[in-house]
Specification:
The protein has two domains: 7-145, Fructose-1,6-Bisphosphatase, subunit A, domain 1 (Fructose-1,6-Bisphosphatase, Chain A, domain 1, 2-Layer Sandwich); 153-283, D-Maltodextrin-Binding Protein, domain 2, CATH 3.40.190. By secondary structure, it is of the alpha+beta class. The protein starts with 6 loop residues before the first helix and ends in a 19-residue tail after the last helix. The protein is globular and about 55 Å long. It contains eight helices and 14 strands. The strands form three sheets. A seven-stranded mixed sheet has the order 3-4-5-6-7-8-9, sandwiched between helices. Strands 11-10-12-14-13 form a five-stranded mixed sheet, with helices on both faces. The longest helix is centred in the first third of the chain and has 21 residues, at 7-27.
């Protein structure tokens, strides 16, 4: 760990690397890992649980008065009324992990009075460490990163994630993909939203959109994006998005273009836009547009 980094970020890096080492050991014999199903197509493993415990123990050993919001254990640990809350996804991309596909990461963010101040996204299979502290920039390992400079949508690579849970509005999502795909150079899906956001921050891709995500999927990645010079918010471009279950990010030009294309699919779109989406989906034999926002469920990015 570096003495030039903020002490809280250093502790988060220590926790992420410890969890990553545990994940890497388990990946050597992934077929022996015990798996449970939280709901259809939504998995949790003993590795998720062990990694989360390692992270929580490391953080609370250094800061016992801080709060915890973790994917598997919620707010069971830490102080319940602290202004400092660690937001943890111990293994974002569990479905990839259990299939032996090395696209997953550890995500840790620290919110202070509701604002994300420090972020770590660690890819253990590649030993890539993405970090950010508010006002100090974003980094991949020891290199400063910036979002891409591409301005034309036709040149851009955009990442999304496909709905996978029962009740998800698959038809609406496919309508969004259908709107975006002809405008860009390519659309990709990785299975790890936190890593997707880190890749946008590093300029590896130019934009990102996804529905159904929880705060632990996007908290760390959101700070990486803004500290790398990008924008992140909901589909209408509002920055207060962390618990709204829709997320969009990109360099400023791409972000603005995505708002134009995808804003009508937002839960916060105007009534006329929503009606137009519902009519288009009905004509295509699809489902209705999403209802008004509801409280986020406890689920993970698969």
């Amino acid at each position: 760990m570096s003495s030039t980094l903020h002490p809280m970020l250093n502790v988060a890096i220590k926790a992420a690397r410890a969890a990553g080492a545990l994940i890497n050991r388990a990946a050597l014999d992934v077929e022996s890992v015990r798996i449970a199903q939280k709901q259809v197509n939504d998995f949790v493993t003993e590795v998720d649980q062990a990694a989360e415990k390692t992270i929580i123990d490391t953080l609370l050993s250094a800061y016992p008065g801080h709060g915890i919001l973790a994917e598997e254990t919620g707010q069971q640990f830490g102080a319940k009324d602290s202004d400092f809350v660690w937001i943890i996804d111990p293994l974002d991309g569990t479905t990839n992990f259990i299939h032996g596909m090395p696209v997953y990461c550890v995500s840790i963010a620290l919110a202070v009075k509701g604002k994300i101040e420090h972020a770590v996204v660690y890819d253990p299979s590649r030993n890539n460490l993405f970090t950010a502290t508010r006002g100090r920039g974003a980094f991949l390992n020891d290199r400063r990163i910036r979002v891409s400079k591409r301005a034309q949508m036709r040149d851009c690579l955009v990442i999304t994630g496909f709905p996978f849970r029962q009740g998800d509005n698959f038809k609406a999502h496919m309508a969004m993909v259908t709107d975006v795909m002809p405008r860009v150079a390519g659309v990709r899906q990785s299975g790890s939203a936190a890593l997707d956001l880190a890749y946008v921050a590093a300029g590896f891709s130019d934009g990102f959109f996804h529905t159904g995500l929880s705060i632990w999927d996007v908290a760390a990645g959101s700070l990486l994006i803004t500290e790398a010079g990008g924008l992140v918010g909901n589909f209408t471009g509002e920055a207060d998005f962390l618990e709204q279950r829709e997320c969009m990010a990109g360099n400023p030009r791409v972000y603005g273009n995505l708002v134009t294309v995808l804003g009508k699919y937002s839960k916060f779109a105007g009534a006329g836009e929503k009606a137009g989406v519902r009519q288009a989906l009905a004509e295509d034999g699809g489902e209705e547009a999403p209802a008004e926002p509801t409280a986020p469920a406890s689920d993970e990015q698969a």
